[in-house]
Amino acid sequence: MTQQENRVTAGMVVIGDEILSGRTKDVNIGAVADFCTDLGIDLIEVRVVPDEMDTIVEAVNALRARCTYVFTSGGIGPTHDDITADAIARAFGVNLPINAQARAMLETRWKQAGTEVNEARLRMARIPEGADLIVNSVSAAPGFRIGNVHVMAGVPIIMRAMLEALAPTLKGGRKVMSVTVRAGVGEGTIGGPLAALQAEYPDVKMGSYPQMGNEKVMTELVLRSADQALLHEAAEKVRAMVAAAHEKAGIGPPESA
Amino acid sequence: MTQQENRVTAGMVVIGDEILSGRTKDVNIGAVADFCTDLGIDLIEVRVVPDEMDTIVEAVNALRARCTYVFTSGGIGPTHDDITADAIARAFGVNLPINAQARAMLETRWKQAGTEVNEARLRMARIPEGADLIVNSVSAAPGFRIGNVHVMAGVPIIMRAMLEALAPTLKGGRKVMSVTVRAGVGEGTIGGPLAALQAEYPDVKMGSYPQMGNEKVMTELVLRSADQALLHEAAEKVRAMVAAAHEKAGIGPPESA
Questions:
Q1: Separation of first and last alpha carbons in chain A
Q2: Do A22 and B33 touch (CB under 8 A)?
Q3: Above 60 in pLDDT, residue A209?
Q4: Residues B62, B163: contact at Cβ < 8 Å?
Q5: C-alpha dihedral sign at B256, B30, B21, A64
Q6: Residue B57 contacts A, CB cutoff 8 Å
Q7: CATH value at residue B250
Q8: Which of A163, B6, B53, B242 lies at a CB distance of 3.0 to 4.6 Å from B254, suitable for a disulfide?
Q9: Do A208 and B77 lie within an 8 Å CB cutoff?
C-alpha cells in the first residue's frame, strides 16, 4: 500500500471577526494541527473567515470537497453574530430546526444552574437536519457533525473537549513518525546537500527550521514519514551530512532528538 | 462618504508545513491582524497552506483578486522547502532572477559575519521581476512587494520588522474605533436585545464574547465602527440594555472599558 492510498486529510475553518481584528489570538489552529498529527491525519489547509454567511459557506464547501474531514471552530453561541449553524445548513442545503436532543442537554444544564430558557439561548439547540451531536462536557451546548464536517465551539477549552469526544469516530491514516536532527550551522550552509537528500528520499518530508535568538547558530532538521525504515535510513544520511558540515566548521557531531 | 467607499481590505497567506503539523504554533496571524486594525485596514480572510506550489499560487491569486492588500508569511529562507518566491513569480507570470540589490544586501551582511556565499544562500536573493524589496533589519534577507502582494519571512521577529518597514507605504482606511461594555450576565440573557440593537445600528458591528473560567459570569460586548458619533450613540443604548439586565438580576450598573 502506498502512502497516498492511505492518506487521510483535513481542512479547518476558523470562524470569527475577533480573530481577524486581532482582539482574540487564535490557539485552535495549533490544537487541531496537533490532534490531526497524533491521529495520522494530514491537515492540508486552514481558512480564517469573518462572521459572514457567504464567506463561511464558500470556505466550508471548498474544503469539504477536497478533504476527508473538515473541522470548524467558532460561531455556535447564543448571540446574533453566531451564524455558523445557519451557514452549515445552507452549505448542505438542509433545514435548521431546534434539535430535541440538543434542547434536552441544554435544559438539563440550565435547570441545574437556574438559568432561564429564552430565544437567544435556544439558538444553541438549532442543529442542521441529519447532523449528529458532538457532546460538550464543558458548557453543554453541543457541536455537531454533518457529512464530513465537524462543527465545534470557538472557546479553546470547549473545542479541545469536543475534539476528544469525536476522536474515536475518526479514521486515522498511517501514523507519521518524525526524527529531528539538530545542526550547529546555519540553514544556508546545509541547504544544498539537504536538497539533494530530499530529492533522494521523496517519501521522507524534510523541513528545515532556523532557531533564532539563541546564543549560537542552530538549525533543526525535521524528517517525517509514515515509513519507519525509510525514515531512519534518510535520517542516518542527514546526520552524516550534518556531521560533515560540523567537521568543516570545526564543531562536534550533531545531536538527534 | 460611506464606510464602504473608503474600505481598505487585506488577506493573509501563512505558508508552511510546520504550522499545519502543529510543530510550530503560528503567531503571525495575530500580529498582522493587530497591524491591520491599527491602520484601519479590514483583514477579511487568512489561509494557512503547506509548502506546495499549486496551493500557494491558488491562495495568493484568490486573495489578491478580492483584497486591497495581501500579506504572506513564511517560505523565503535558503532551503529547498522555501518556495514562496517561486510561487509568487508563478502567480504573477514573471521570472525569478537573482536581484542585484538583494544580493548586495545579503553579501554585505555575509561579509560582516564571515559567512560563505553558496547556492543555497543565494536562493534568498531571487526576487520576482518587477518587485520592490522589503527591508529586513534583523537578518538582511529581504521580503518583497509585487502588485498588491507583500511577501514576508515566517520568523515572527523578522515578519514584524518587515511590517514596520512597509507600514508607511500602505494606505489606511478610516480608523475603526471600538467601545467595550462588560456585562455581568451570560450571553444568553442579553442575546435577544443585543440582536435588536444590532439591527437598529447596522454600521456599528456588535460582537459578543463570553468570558470563560472567571469566578463570575461575564460577557464582553465589543462595538466597532468608523463613525464615532454613531458608535457612541449605539454604545449608550447597549449600556442601557445591559443596565436593565443587571437590574433584573439584582447587580450593579455595567462597566465600560
A1: 29
A2: yes
A3: yes
A4: no
A5: positive
A6: no
A7: 3.30.70
A8: B242
A9: yes
Query: Which chain B residues in 88-147 lie under 8 Å from chain A, judged by CB atoms?
Result: 115-116, 118-121, 123-124, 138-139
Domain count for chain A: 2
One-letter amino acid for residue A254 of the chain: P
Judge contact between B142 and B136, C-beta under 8 A: yes
CATH number of the domain enclosing B139:
3.40.980.10
Q: Is A40 on the interface with B (CB under 8 A)?
A: no
Q: Are residues A37 and A163 in the same domain?
A: yes
Cβ–Cβ < 8 Å for B254, B239: yes
d(CA A32, nearest CA chain B) in Å: 8
- Cβ(B220)–Cβ(B211) below 8 Å: yes
Please indicate, yes or no, whether residues B94 and B165 belong to a single structural domain of this protein: yes
The answer on B157 and B50 residing in a single domain is yes
Are B122 and B21 found together in one domain? yes
Which of A83-87, A202-206, A224-228 is the most confident on average?
A83-87
A3 lies in some domain: no
Number of other CB atoms surrounding residue B253 within 10 Å: 12
Residues B90, B53: contact at Cβ < 8 Å?
yes
Whether residues B199 and B226 fall in one domain? yes
Domain boundary, last residue among B103, B135, B169: B169
**Which residue among A33, A192, A224 places its CB closest to the CB of B19?**
A33
Q: How far is CA B71 from CA A207, B46, B97, in A?
A: 23, 9, 22
Report chain A residues whose CB lies below 8 A from the CB of B209.
18, 24
* Cα–Cα distance, B215 to B120 (Å, whole number): 55
pLDDT tens track for B177-203? 889 999 999 888 999 999 999 999 999
pLDDT at B256: 67
pLDDT digits (tens, 9 = 90+) for B12-47: 999 999 999 999 999 999 999 999 998 889 999 999
Q: Please, is B241 exposed, middle or buried when counting C-beta atoms within 10 Å of its C-beta (0-12, 13-18, 19+)?
A: buried
Put simply, whether B68 touches A (Cβ < 8 Å) is no
CB A54 within 8 Å of CB A22:
no
Please tell me whether residues A27 and A100 are part of one structural domain: yes
Please determine, for the modelled complex, whether the ipTM score is greater than 0.90.
no
User: Predicted confidence band at B3 (pLDDT cuts at 50, 70, 90)?
Assistant: very low
Q: Look at residues B169, B199, B223 and tell me which one is the last residue of a structural domain.
A: B169
Q: Flag whether B30 is in a domain.
A: yes
Give the sign of the dihedral formed by CA A20, CA A155, CA A153, CA B15: positive
